[in-house]
Design brief:
Number of strands: 9
Helix content: 10-25%
Distance between the termini: 80 Å
Number of helices: 3
Largest sheet: 5 strands, antiparallel
Length: about 150
C-alpha cells in the first residue's frame, strides 16, 4: 500500500472572502465591546425619593427617611426600625418642590437635595445627615454631592 502525500491546502476563491468577513466581524465586536466599556456604570443604590409620605430604608435597615408634611411646608424625618421618630429637621422645604432624599449605598448617611437643585434650577443648600459618634444625628451643609449621589439624581 503506497501512501500518497496530500496536496497542499490552497485557499479557494471563497477563502479570502471568508477571511475578510471574519476579520471585519472581529473588528466590529471589538469596537462594540470598547463602546460598552466607555458607557457610564449604573448608579449604585436606590433612586431618590421626592414623594411626601414615602419612606426609604437606610442601607443597614435600622432607619427610614421620610418627607413629612406640616401645612404648606415639608421636612425630613428619620425613624428607627420600630417606626419611632429619632430625628427631624425644621420643615424648611416647599410642598410644591420637596427635597430629594438619598441614602449612601454603604452607610447610614442621608443626603437631602433641594427640589430646585434636582429640577436643574438654581441650587439650594444640600445637606448631609449622619449619625454622630456620641449618639443622635447631625445635619451639616455640604459644598457638593459625592459622585455616588450625584449619579442617582
Amino acid at each position: 500500500m503506497s501512501m500518497m502525500p496530500s496536496p497542499p491546502l490552497v485557499p479557494g476563491p471563497g477563502a479570502s472572502r471568508r477571511s475578510l468577513l471574519l476579520g471585519l466581524a472581529a473588528v466590529g465586536i471589538a469596537g462594540l465591546l470598547a463602546a460598552c466599556a466607555e458607557q457610564e456604570p449604573e448608579p449604585v443604590g436606590p433612586a431618590p425619593i421626592t414623594e411626601v409620605g414615602a419612606e426609604v430604608a437606610s442601607p443597614s435597615g435600622e432607619y427610614t427617611a421620610v418627607i413629612d408634611a406640616a401645612g404648606d411646608s415639608v421636612g425630613v424625618l428619620l425613624r428607627d426600625a420600630s417606626g419611632q421618630d429619632v430625628w427631624g429637621d425644621d420643615y424648611g422645604y416647599s410642598r410644591t418642590e420637596p427635597p430629594a432624599l438619598l441614602w449612601e449605598a454603604e452607610a447610614d448617611v442621608l443626603w437631602v437635595v433641594p427640589g430646585d437643585h434636582v429640577a436643574g434650577g438654581p441650587a439650594g443648600e444640600i445637606f448631609r445627615i449622619a449619625p454622630r459618634a456620641e449618639g443622635g444625628w447631625s445635619k451639616e451643609p455640604a459644598a457638593e454631592l459625592p459622585e455616588e449621589i450625584a449619579a442617582r439624581l
